[in-house]
Amino acid sequence: MAKTIFITGTSSGLGKLTAKHFAKLGWNVAATMRTPEKETELTQISNIKVFKLDVTKQEQVNTAIEQAIATFGKIDIVVNNAGMGTYGALELATEEAIDNQYAVNVRGPINVIRAFLPHFRANRGGMFINISSFMGVTTAVPIGSLYNMSKFALEGLIEGLYYELKPLNIELRLVEQGGSSGNNFGDNITWNTDENIKAYDAITAKIKLLMENRDSSHLGDPQDIVDVIDSLATGKSNQFRTLVGDMGKGLMELRKSVPIEEYLSTVAKNFE
Ligand SMILES: NC(=O)c1ccc[n+]([C@@H]2O[C@H](COP(=O)([O-])OP(=O)(O)OC[C@H]3O[C@@H](n4cnc5c(N)ncnc54)[C@H](OP(=O)(O)O)[C@@H]3O)[C@@H](O)[C@H]2O)c1
Questions:
Q1: Among 116-120, 221-225, 263-267, whose mean pLDDT is lowest?
Q2: What average pLDDT does this structure show over 114-140?
Q3: 108 CA → ligand 1 middle, Å
Q4: Where are the domains of the chain?
Q5: Which of 81, 176, 218, 226 has most ligand 1 atoms within 8 Å of CB, for mutation?
Q6: pLDDT mean over 208-222
Q7: Closest ligand 1 atom to the C-alpha of 151?
Q8: Confidence tier at 217 by pLDDT (50, 70, 90)
Q9: pLDDT at 218 over 90
Q10: Which of 20, 145, 151, 180 is catalytic?
Q11: Residue 11 among the catalytic residues
Q12: Which of 29, 97, 152, 163 is the most interior residue, by most CB within 10 Å?
């Protein structure tokens, strides 16, 4: 019998690529997104069913999961992929921007995981694959503290959950995206700004430029990340954490090899 994968944030980027990949492999795919009425590609693929789901809205999460189970019977793998980035100096962030970063990247996976647990317990197993970032295991740029906070929190949540879900045969995986080119994650970045405070203008301009000119050779190719999700979902890999992309790997090696003070000053020097 075909297996079923449930994915959040499939309107673009990694989520969409993952949905198409698993459909091609013959899996059933529950592809969820905030605005299914706009979707024209995934709706054409026979083994993909599209459901409306905003991860910050528990009612929508519950309804989408109920509909997916009613459609496919059993969900084997859940991919917590939906995410966005809030960048810019913390001092300039609005209350709403701070709350939204947490709501999407942390509370979102919590909402999805909690709503799926009764189904996975009834099935005596299941797997949550969580899309994190190298920014979830280390720091890398100034004015990224809110995004760092959200992915560090996701990492802590998933690592902590390991102990309570392992006895129930419910597996957890973290995929640390190295920052990938070829998708529109940049469009999902909210920038904190305040025209009355100029103190962060220079560094903000530097980081914006850096993001616009991201060197894809150091980032994970989106297909490499899909291949990692494939290996985890099919059991070819049982790694708890998988870091993708040279940039993240280089930073992690540095972080492990020197005291934190040296790591911080080395990274900071890149932005002087
Ligand atoms: N690309 C990178 O450089 C990078 C690096 C490290 C980690 N990541 C992580 O990788 C994951 C996928 O991102 P991506 O690179 O594929 O970027 P993307 O193309 O911007 O995809 C993000 C997806 O999340 C969805 N989303 C945002 N807020 C949502 C909400 N409240 N409820 C449901 N869906 C929501 C977006 O849907 P809408 O179309 O409705 O906005 C979109 O489908 C994210 O978790 C991101 O944090 C990305």
A1: 221-225
A2: 97
A3: 12
A4: 4-269
A5: 81
A6: 75
A7: 47
A8: low
A9: no
A10: 151
A11: yes
A12: 29
Ordered DSSP codes for the chain: ---EEEES--SSHHHHHHHHHHHHTT-EEEEEES-GGG--SGGGSTTEEEEE--TT-HHHHHHHHHHHHHHHS---EEEE----EEES-GGG--HHHHHHHHIIIIIHHHHHHHHHHHHHHHHT-EEEEEEEEGGGTS--STT-HHHHHHHHHHHHHHHHHHHHHGGGTEEEEEEEE---SSS-GGGGEEEP--TT--TTHHHHHHHHHHHHT--GGGSPPHHHHHHHHHHHHHTS---SEEE-SHHHHHHHHHHHHS-HHHHHHHHHHTT-
Catalytic residue (choose from 11, 133, 150, 180):
11
pLDDT band at 181 (very low <50, low <70, confident <90, very high): low
pLDDT for the residue numbered 180: 58
**Mean per-residue pLDDT over the chain, rounded:** 94
Asked whether 133 lines ligand 1 (CB < 6 A), one says yes
Cα(223) to ligand 1 centroid in Å equals 15
> Taking the domain 4-269, which CATH number applies?
3.40.50.720
